[in-house]
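Quarterly update, task 2.4: adenosine-5'-diphosphate-bound model.
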Amino acid sequence: MGQPSRSGIVSRSNVNKLDVPLSPDTPVEQLPGIGERRARVLRAQGICTALDCLLNLPRRYEDWRVLSNPRELRPGATVTMRGTLRKVAQRAMASNRKLCLMRARFECDGTSVPVVWFNFSPHLAAQIPFDCEVLIHGKVAIGMGALLQIVNPVVEQFSGEEALSLRPVYRVPSTVGQRTFARLVSVILDQLDGRFEGAIPESLRRSSGLLEPIAALRFVHRPPSSANLEDLMFGRTAAHQVLALEELFAFQLALHLESRRAAQRRGHVLPASDGLSQAFLKSLPFELTNAQKRVLAEIDVDLVSGTPMNRLLIGEVGSGKTVVALWSALRAVECGWQAAVMAPIGLLAEQHYQTAARYVEGLGVRCALLTSAVTGKERAQRLRDIACGRAQIVFGTQALLKDSVRFTKLGLAVIDEQHRFGVFDRARLKSVAPNSHMLLMTATPIPRSLALVLFANLNVSFLDEVPAGRARVQTRIVPESRFEEVESIVLRRVEEGGRAYFVLPVIGEDIASDDELDDEGVASVKAIAERLRAGKLSRFRAGILHGRMAQRAREATMRAFREGALDILVATTLVEVGVDVPEANAIVIVNAERYGLAQLHQLRGRVGRGNADSDCILLVKDDACEQAFRRLSAILRSTSGIEIAKADMELRGPGDLLGSRQSGALPLRFARFVHDAELISQARAMAHQTLLRDPELAGPETSGARRAVKRLLAYGFSLADVG
Ligand code: ADP
Ligand code: MG
């Protein structure tokens, strides 16, 4: 934790060696300096090829351009200095004997400044270059005796003036390390220089006066000293624009090609009737919202149209998407077809199944649940039921897409939280049942006007109304040291007959590996559960839920919480998506400063689903910085997913938008779609022009475009049809 943020302080790797010529598609395994282990962790983060390395933009920069004077240090400042380090002492840390505490003196211009490293691995400590000319970069803090000191600095041997530059800091696993990754990016940039074809055809690029894409990438990864740091951080440079435009251009092309293809497919006609689907609506204990009614009507039109439905339902957290899903499934069943409802995690599939058991089985419809927790004879039986058509609505996870699952007559499929599914899953579904209707559902906040442009190949419906009479959720930020107050608030809620979540993050800044993440999550879940047992809430029943538990145990715990056999659930972010327990009236999010706002919004959506007033407590580290508070206050101010997403983007740099989590329903990495309306229309015009000249993208001028579209498909563009 307190370890210097970047491993490989003085590491030398063989990154400069290279025997194979690189192409953008060279797999990471074949890149210099990347062995099997590093390749594995990079892949886990979605970095699979040389190009992916380049597209992994720096998440921030360190400014090493200006050398500071050791006589003019201010606490809190981050400084770069040139001088010599003298070792003073090294000993084991009291808290962890495997790590050490090291002290040194930094000498420069006849002054000396104390330097200290906490929780330092002795292996790295041995590599620090003492007694020679070095650059150090680190934070100034007030140490013992009110003396200023430099804490956990990065050190490197002074190699010349060019070291005084803006340096990228990447989101890479610590097994790879910043230095290795930065050097790798340099090698790739050099290798691909002059051999990298962007998506936008050359002539169009020139006439639009755009930078070459490789030059744009170089600018972002290796900014010149003259670059404006703030513009870089917030993605406001011409280079960023080019990258966004390249991406949006390919995206627009893909949309056009996709709609052309979709128009040629035939779909089953499911004539409207007042059978099961109507009976279901009548059995609900509530009135549908107007938005729900409108969406049902929109879906009805698709189902009788003769072309397969390809509809994306964008619905605010808690807007009641499940009702729409079940109604659609029943529309298929009443016309003699089977329906599948898929969710990204078993917990959610089971929850949908239980909802169906409550409302749908009473109508005589046979439902089946198929998750990885269903095994042995039971599984075999359910597979038979699916194959012979006995199971009319099947609930499950990706497991439904396995070869062993055969539907006789799949008429309609619903994919809940679709952004959590890989493109492979969606493509597989399409190949299992090419003519069946598809309803994709997501809570990813995308403004309507942009969604219509971005998903021009789909029909889009919006559930923009939360059922009336919903409880109020009071959100507040509380520092960790006031945990007892939090216990009191939760105590009150549980005594009112409610239930409470404690949620813990499993997201690290430098993601090491999924395994390590899980371990961290498990440890903190257990620690909180322990603490609750010792405190005011000890007389209530608490359960724990994390990724390391078997699917069966997870489902059992969740069921216990839902049914009230547990009052408190201490969980990792497994409960983030879709979990619906109307009685839950308190959620405590531990280390809230570590989450994105959109994720916090999702988590907060777990309470206030019934009609009991609820509390959402964002528990933050006592020393959480001001910026963290500013970010979190956006969530106090708003309950609209879209507004929160906008605020999130304004507060983060573009690097933070990368990665599959943030991209949500969109396969876009660079386009900040909330802001880039102008770029979108430019990209659209360019795509039109290109397709007019070359409708099939078959000519030599469009070879880059063709490849970019293909990559986009691989990354997860197509919501319907791949290849
Ligand atoms: P989400 O859109 O987040 O998936 P759910 O479908 O889980 O939301 O619905 C949230 C809760 O709201 C559920 O408990 C559901 O029964 C309830 N609900 C759905 N539609 C309505 C409605 N029209 N009026 C009142 N409650 C509703
Ligand atoms: Mg849901």
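Highlight for this quarter: The CA atoms of residues 200 and 270 lie 42 Å apart.
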